[in-house]
Amino acid sequence: MAASDSKTLLKSDAVYKYILETSVYPREHECMRELRLLTAQHPWSIMASSPDETQFIGMLLKILNARNTLEIGVFTGYSLLATALALPSDGKIIAVDKNREYYEIGSPIIEKAGMTHKVDFREGSALAILNELVAEEKNEGNFDFAFIDADKVNYLNYHERVLKLLRIGGIIAYDNTLWSGFVVASPDEPLSEKDRELAHATREFNKAIAADPRVEVSHLSIADGLTLCRRIA
Ligand SMILES: C[S@@+](CC[C@H](N)C(=O)[O-])C[C@H]1O[C@@H](n2cnc3c(N)ncnc32)[C@H](O)[C@@H]1O
């Protein structure tokens, strides 16, 4: 995969290819490779996380000793499989997507990887399912990690709910927080209506997160921008 075919904001195709070929592909789990190649054939393949990003998330989960996680936005399950592979055998992921058909594309590969028992897939609107989770007292502070990768205009709504579910010291990772670099687009730049709306929502989200005293923040330029929020209060 060259930089030009992917979401990376790295300027050099050659450097991105070098990273993938040197440090990512040689260590990639065979089922991650299979799911990546299968997803690449989908007309919406651009929605999947990049291989360097899923590798990073896998390591982060291990550093955290994560056991209970949440994923908002599953698509074919590429980041979900990376998460499942990084969790211990009794780890659990509540994985939410409004479209079960997408998840079913990748679920045979998740099964083949022996990871199905870790996945609790819930079909529906992320906001409704987060509200249900928050309403159950046993979920308060019960999650070590959340990956938020759907419905960007609702990120701040998700943030309020996920903070209630996350333990102190747990991490929320928000994807696409640089929105193809359009967060710095000038008002006269010829963007589509959708990109203009999402760039605006992303800027508002980034501003709010930077000022939120309940979390520490690290804004990474990996893939399309990944913001880590570590809950401290
Ligand atoms: C960017 S894709 C997720 C990609 C996946 N995390 C990966 O890395 O392969 C976003 C997904 O979110 C789902 N989605 C969008 N809006 C949603 C909503 N409001 N509630 C639940 N799922 C939603 C879409 O169906 C889509 O599968």
UniProtKB/TrEMBL annotation:
One of its GO terms (biological process) is methylation. One of its GO terms (molecular function) is O-methyltransferase activity. Signal peptide: none annotated. The keyword Metal-binding applies. Gene3D superfamilies: Vaccinia Virus protein VP39. It comes from the Eukaryota. PROSITE patterns: SAM_OMT_I. The keyword Nucleus does not apply. Coiled coil: none annotated. Keywords: Metal-binding, Methyltransferase, S-adenosyl-L-methionine, Transferase. Pfam families: Methyltransf_3. Belongs to the class I-like SAM-binding methyltransferase superfamily. Cation-dependent O-methyltransferase family. This is Caffeoyl-CoA O-methyltransferase. The lineage of its organism: Eukaryota, Viridiplantae, Streptophyta, Embryophyta, Tracheophyta.
